[in-house]
Amino acid sequence: MIAHEPDALFVAYKYYKRERKRRKIKLIFDCHEAYEHWHDQKLGLPFLEKRMNQIVMSAINRKIARIDGVTSVNQTMTENFAKFNTNSWMLPSVPSKQYALAGINEKVQRNSTVFFGQFGVSRQKEMLLCAAEILKNKGINHTIAIIGGDGKSEEDSLFMREAQKRGVSEYFHFYGWMESERAYKVLSEYAVGMMRFDSYTMPGNYALPNKLFEYMAYGMAVIACSENIEEAGIIRESDCGVLIESETGDALAEGIIKAWADPDALERMRKNAFCAIREKYNWDVYGEVLRNIIERQQRWITKKNVF
User: Using CA atoms, how far apart are residues 44 and 36, in angstroms rounded to an integer?
Assistant: First the structure.
């Protein structure tokens, strides 16, 4: 059995505890959220939020220590769970190789950076507006494309109204929300993609969005913040992007300028991103990890049945 949420884990554990010997059941928890921060900024009472998070994680960890293994979407969570169960594996949200079969698009929009997804609870909007103001003041022509954002069209977007108010609307190309097939086609027309900047929502941020791997699969250099240790680790390891030091408009403007300052360096980062997906961060590789996990459990069951 594979439980994908804490409530599923608690329900499955009751059955597992009762039937595991008779029916030779194995139970694995598949964790894809940082539940130790699940209640942050939700109750309006920091002390209560912290206490609730502690209670939730304590309950999860007690169950993990008594089951057969746990899979997590990033390295930080994998290492944390390994303290309670040595069978702790990393299974990130990576793409299939089919997303990178077409190769790197050479006919991309020049002097353009794209943001893909919703703004969510982040500093994205203010950082984008501030960065655009800085670029404008420096006399640097640049376009920041937004696929998703906060509306279906520019007319629906409160962000674009604010950009108009602050005199920087010409620095944005707002695509808004669209069907996924068209969205990915538009995404492939860009050479540089920026992550969502929301590290302040999680102390020691270790979220690892699939957005990172989607950018890399299309041969794009990535702009991210070094405050996110998971994103920063992959970008440094693969040399596939630019890391800004803080989540500010100033830092974002510097990151955009740096990404486009050296055409040869940008081409190298794009190739490195593409190669990292083809060679390491794809479902063929991590699918084999999952296959080994399942086969390991099956061998245990078979052995128990024999003896």
Answer: 16
Alpha-carbon distance of 202 to 142, in angstroms, equals 31
What are 103's two structure tokens? 């190769």
The packing angle between helices 158-165 and 124-137, to 10°, is: 30
Angstrom CA distances, 46 to 34, 123, 224, stand at: 17, 20, 28
The yes-or-no verdict on residue 183 having pLDDT over 50 is yes
Scored b (16 or more CB within 10 A) or e, 241-272 reads bbbbeebbbebbbbbbbebbeeeeebeebbeb
pLDDT above 50 (res 306):
no
- pLDDT confidence of residue 307: 36
Helix (H, G, I), strand (E, B) or coil at 166: coil
Q: What distance lies between CA 23 and its chain's CA centroid?
A: 37
Q: Given a cut of 50, is residue 305 above it in pLDDT? A: no
**Beta strand segments in 17-171, E:** 28-31, 69-72, 88-90, 112-118, 143-149
Name the token pair of 263.
Answer: 């055409």
Q: Please state, in angstroms and as integers, the Cα–Cα distance from residue 123 to each residue in 18, 41, 142, following that order.
A: 48, 15, 20
Quote the pLDDT of residue 42.
82
Give the angle subtended at the CA of 113 by the CAs of 108 and 115, to the nearest 5°.
Answer: 115
Question: For residue 82, which phi and psi values (nearest 5 degrees)?
Answer: -65, -20
- The structure's pTM equals 0.89
Q: Which of 187, 180, 225, 194 is nearest to 100 (CA)?
A: 187
Residue 9 and residue 68: Cα distance in Å, rounded? 12
Does the pLDDT of residue 290 top 60, yes or no? yes
Tokens of 129: 């507006």
pLDDT of 30 reads 95
